[in-house]
Every structure is written in C-alpha cells, then in structure tokens.
Design brief:
single chain, 341 residues, alpha/beta, Rossmann fold, 8-stranded mixed β-sheet, 11 helices, 41% helix, 16% strand, AB_hydrolase_1, hydrolase, Peptidase_S33
C-alpha cells in the first residue's frame, strides 16, 4: 500500500511538472521573439545606428549597435582606454541575451567605427559627457529603462554623466574604476609597483625618467610584469581575440592625452581628476565592481559603493581590470542580479 501511495504521489508531481513545462514553453518563445524584435525602420541593419553629434568643432558621427530588445532594461556600454573600442566588451553577448537584457555598443568619438576628428582639443571630459547625453536622446533612453555601464575610463565618464544627468537614468554601473585619479596613481606606486621584481621596476622607472615611451622595451617589461597580472590575468598570447582586436585599434592620441603612456599609473589630463567627495550626490541605484588583482584598489571601490546613496558592491576575487574575462561567473552573476532587481 505504501508503495502504491508513493508511486501515485510521485506520478502526480511528475505530471504537474510536465504540465508546468508545457505551459511555460509558449511564453519563452514569445519572450525570445520580443527580445529579437526588429527595429521600426524600413531597412534593417542589425541594430547599427550612426548618431550625429554636435560639438564646438562641428558635427561628427558616432557608431552604436543595439543588441536585443527590452523596454525596461537598456544598458549603454562605455568602453575604456580612453581610445579603445566597444569590441573588447563582446563577451557580454555570452551572458546578457540569455537573461533578456538589452545592451548597446557605442564607440565614443575618436574610437573604433566612429569619426575621428584628429583634434586633441576634442579629447575633453565635459565634451564627452555632452556626447553621451546626445546619444541617450537619439536612442530614446530614459529614467524608466536607461542603465549606464562604464568600464575603466568609461567609469570616469559614467560618473561624470550621472552627476549631471542622473535624472535621465534608472541605474549606474561603475566597473573597475576608482573615483580619484590621484589615489589611483598612489595605489600603482605604493602597492602594485612594490609587487614587481625590483630590477624590472628599476628599468621601467629609468625609461619613464627619460620619457622614452616609444622604446619597445617599455611594453616588453610591462606586459608580463604588469598587464598579465593586473589588466587580464592570462598570458598575452592567450588573451581573447576581441580584446587584442580592440586594443590594437586604440587611438593613441586620445589615450596618451587623457591617460598617459600606459596603465601603470596616470599622467594625462585626468591626472588630478577626483570625484570622491561628490559621490554622495549620486542618488540612483549604483553598482560598483572591483577585483582583487585590478589596477584599481578594490577597497577604494568598496568605499565608493558606500558613499553613493543606493550603492551595491560586487567583488571579483579572481578578477583583474578585465574581470568580465578572468572572473566571468562572479562578474556577470552580480551584474545580472543588479539589473533585474
């Protein structure tokens, strides 16, 4: 009798589960169809759109590409560098579509597929903030759906944009970027540099003292001793193709003007940039992402998450500056959770 009862109960729950699966199937197909819904234009271009940007030096075009469709969650990606391209963020395609999250690639002016005015005066933080605002308007992003994710230099741009235009936003993600460039430089000098082989550091400092940054020896030393430890924790020969493709297209004029000659500290126009005291003015939900081996101090990143009004901190214990590659599971699980709350 007990066997019959157990069998009956098991059969009942099994049939219930099968019925439930059958009921959910059409909904899943419907969601998939809606996610890959075509844009409302006569000629389909795979989501690509050039956007005209008004600047003090005239009108230029910037490149964007929409992936997926979600009326409630639209994530605009701001690449780092400055001067790299959207391409190193292509790994997002392996995680966000499965969750129905729409995201938008965007090459900033002077980057990748966008126009390059070849004018150093255009490499200016306030001008880039206004550029992002023009992109937002053109893409019809608003406070009910617009999330801005900035990585590295893109994090600086995202913070500046939020401090001026957060009323147009639903949420902010600051990925792998401190809010104080002076503290960033100090962390590189006082923490990361001391982890290097003393002989390597001595040779690097000698090259820097002569400003001999075009010397190939400079990157020969930095790649195994710094980049492979703090930018992306893989041998350079194994770096993902989207990363090498993107970095290979870096606009050096933009990069050196804003950042300086390398990721080993900061010495460009952003050298004295500091928004730490202003983070308290960011009142929208904000996710700050730090990583154990990053060029950015993870403790500083955690403190940032406490200074904003509605902050959350995501720590990637195996990650570096590109934690979305070397600690993917942690990074995307945390990001997706934040976007879906």
């Amino acid at each position: 009798m007990k066997k019959i009862t157990l069998y009956t109960i098991t059969a009942f729950f099994l049939s219930l589960a099968l019925f439930s699966c059958k009921e959910k199937e059409p909904e899943t197909k419907s969601d998939l169809k809606e996610y890959f819904k075509k844009s409302e234009v006569s000629l389909q271009t795979g989501g690509m759109q050039f956007i005209p940007i008004e600047t003090p030096k005239g009108t230029f075009k910037v490149w964007t590409k929409r992936f997926g469709n979600n009326p409630k969650i639209k994530v605009l990606l701001l690449n780092g560098g400055p001067g790299a391209t959207h391409e190193y963020l292509e790994c997002f395609e392996s995680f966000l579509p499965a969750e129905g999250i729409e995201f938008i690639y965007y090459d900033q002016l002077g980057c990748g597929n966008s126009d390059d005015p070849k004018d150093v005066s255009m490499w200016d933080l306030p001008r880039y903030v206004e550029e992002v605002e023009q992109v937002r308007k053109a893409l019809n992003l608003d406070k009910d759906n617009f999330y801005l994710l900035g990585h590295s230099w893109g994090g600086i741009l995202a913070m500046e944009y939020a401090l001026k235009y957060q009323g147009n936003m639903k949420g902010l993600i600051i990925s792998n970027m401190m809010s104080d460039a002076v503290a960033y430089g100090k962390y590189a000098d006082e923490v990361l540099a001391k982890q290097m082989n003393p002989e390597v550091l001595k040779e690097l400092r000698a090259i820097e003292a002569k400003s001999d940054f075009s010397n190939p020896r400079y990157m020969e030393l930095l790649m195994p001793n710094f980049y492979e430890k703090h930018i992306l924790r893989l041998p350079a020969k194994d770096w993902p193709e989207p990363v090498t493709r993107s970095l290979g297209k870096t606009n050096q004029s933009l990069y050196v003007t804003m950042q300086g000659p390398s990721e080993f500290g900061i010495s460009g126009k952003l050298e004295k940039w500091n928004r730490m005291p202003d983070l308290k003015n960011i009142t929208i939900p904000t996710l700050v992402i730090g990583a154990r081996y990053d060029t950015m101090d993870p403790k500083h990143m955690e403190e940032m998450s406490k200074l904003v009004k509605k902050g959350t901190y995501l720590f990637c214990p195996r990650g570096s500056h590109m934690a979305f590659y070397d600690d993917q599971e942690t990074y995307f699980r945390g990001l997706i959770s934040f976007l879906k709350k």
